[in-house]
Histidinol-phosphate aminotransferase
Amino acid sequence: MTRITPQPGIMDIALYEGGQSHLEGKANVLKLSSNENPLGAPEPAREAFLRAVRDLHRYPNTDHAGLRQAIGEVWALDPRRIVCGVGSDEIIHFLCQAYAGPGDEVIHTEHGFAMYRISALAAGATPVEVPERERTTDVDAILAAATPRTKLVFIANPNNPTGTMIGEGELAQLADGLPPQALLVLDGAYAEYVEGYDAGAALIAARDNVVMTRTFSKIYGLGGLRVGWGYGPQEVVDTLNRVRGPFNLSTAALMAAEAAVRDRAWVQRCRQENARWRDWLAARLAELGVPSDVATANFVLARFADAAEANACDEHLRGEGIIVRRVAGYKLPHCLRITVGDEASCRRVAHAIGQFKGGR
Ligand SMILES: *Cc1c(COP(=O)(O)O)cnc(C)c1O
């Protein structure tokens, strides 16, 4: 067995730990650990998924034309420049596979999403971590870290798990300042939660070194189906389509996602409900002595005095049947990431944290 070894870098990948969903011996568990939509998936998406059962023996279409057309109409984008993947995770993977290899550097930020490092290592490239400023993307630090070997720069905007974001001016400054061989990837997994934010579409229209990734896992409530997409320069999209498996998305996933993206009223309602209860939750926690940064997505990053207090609060919440996310793996051991649920869920988690703070 010792003669058979994986490619360099592969064994440096730590296995991904997802948000937990069960607690031993607890009924009525409240899962606020994976940034899922508390309202579930929109009804038209559920119906489309059920209709797909008739065609289970058929291969799915390989060009994803229907879904790309729908995305293009809804977001005013050119469908030819859209590529669909098994979650946006797969688009991130395609980008690393196609553009980064041994000797190349892939920049991600200090508290950036785990998949950037994982996909960079899987491609044999070198991940480069850049510090953030007060849990926020630091454009100057990224530009200072860029080298002639930098091939990809990943920014989640809004970022997970910090929930902060940077403005269009800073994004443009970043795109303009990168060396010519580097591609800027704007991960817009939470873009729909930000009123009026185009996720970088205008930047992509004006430049040839910017790509966005998007997902159906968050506001569309389809995390279980695994559908995401990317948008960027035609050459980049054509390149990603070469490494994409021809049947990467199932018919059921394609049909449900197409129905979901066309349900604009759903997105608007979810955005509004989320903003209302997110801001309520953050304000309530602040009253309890648990501060957080201005949250722009569907979660709040609650800050505690230190790691011991954060872990003790997490233990208390588990005792109350509530699962939130520890983020020590994201270099934030004194924080807990709490997904914004519906009204009852927000009240329940705030009440439990109040018990914890009161009992100390
Ligand atoms: C949740 C999330 C995604 C979505 O991943 P999918 O593979 O589309 O489910 C992407 N990026 C970030 C930063 C996320 O938090």
